[in-house]
Amino acid sequence: MAGRRLRDAVKTVLSGDKSFGSNIHVVIAGLTNAYSQYVTTYEELRLQVHLILFSRGLTQTTDISVTGIIKGDNADSQDAKNSYHYRDDVQRSPRAFMLSNDFNMKNDSLAQDKPLKQRLGLEGRLRYDRDAQTSREERCFRLWINSLGIVTYVNNVFEDVRNGWVLLEVLDKVSPGSVNWKQAIKPPIKMPFRKVENCNQVIKIGKDLNFSLVNIAGNDIVQGNKKLLLAFMWQLMRFTMLQLLRNLRSYSQGKEITDVDILNWANNKVKKAGRTSQMESFKDKNLSNGIFFLELLSVVEPRVVNWTLVTKGETDDNKKLNSTYIISVTRKLGCSIFLLPEDIIKVN
């Protein structure tokens, strides 16, 4: 909607200039992640302002005054122009409806001193946990896909894979030659059945790779079925990990690579470089500060770690900074990433 309004606005301006003629076609290139190119609709802006005010504890009733920011389209009075009812906007977004329902905004006091999860009812807590877990898995898959170095950059897994093209790129990366590009349709794809054709080829390749894809069809991907998409993505990531282990085995004359072998290799690398940190096991709680991983990365490529950006990892905030920096460094080295910063902090 925001893109169409922007396009119409540009066309209106250009139509007023006779030098462009009457045959004007406006094409908007793909928007980037830069804030300077952020585009939203009027309705989304109203909802975002409401959620921002709510998060800051500025809303005490269901009617929110946002003078100078929001004005009602059909307001009859000056007071109405500067206020709106939150229900007008939450009806446009299921996610916002869940928030508004679970936050119980009909109460004057929202008990801001309690954690969010404690303020929700049983159903709300279940949805909160489910939504948080889904969001975490989406981030994990997004980070992994972007670390593969495919052409298309993924901003949201559940949305960007629905045309099948991204999944075909990933499959071609992890299993070269498996995709028949002559039968693939490159975005932008206007016809829905073309998207289904791409996704059908994705399912076919998945079955050829021995994925368990019972009752999963290409149309399920097009429709954005999160449950089935997560099942497919987990198998795709697992296939990549097993393939990586097979490649390691080929370098070790067929010997099975064990956890002990990886542990000894990492400790020896760090020790030979004159570093003092060591890891006792993959469950060593000292790994949560991220220092050992950064030292190991600096041994692999001495120039890749900027130690002025590394903290001692003594507090949770410092640990988070280190773990986030670890992910950034590994991406710079071209590594495949199978975890999130939270996994490093929790030593998963």
TrEMBL record:
The keyword Calcium applies. GO terms for molecular function: actin filament binding; metal ion binding. Coiled coil: none annotated. Residues 135-241, 256-348 form the Calponin-homology (CH) domain. InterPro entries: CH_dom, CH_dom_sf, Fimbrin/Plastin, NEUT/ALK_ceramidase_N. PANTHER family: FIMBRIN-5, FIMBRIN/PLASTIN. This is Fimbrin-5.
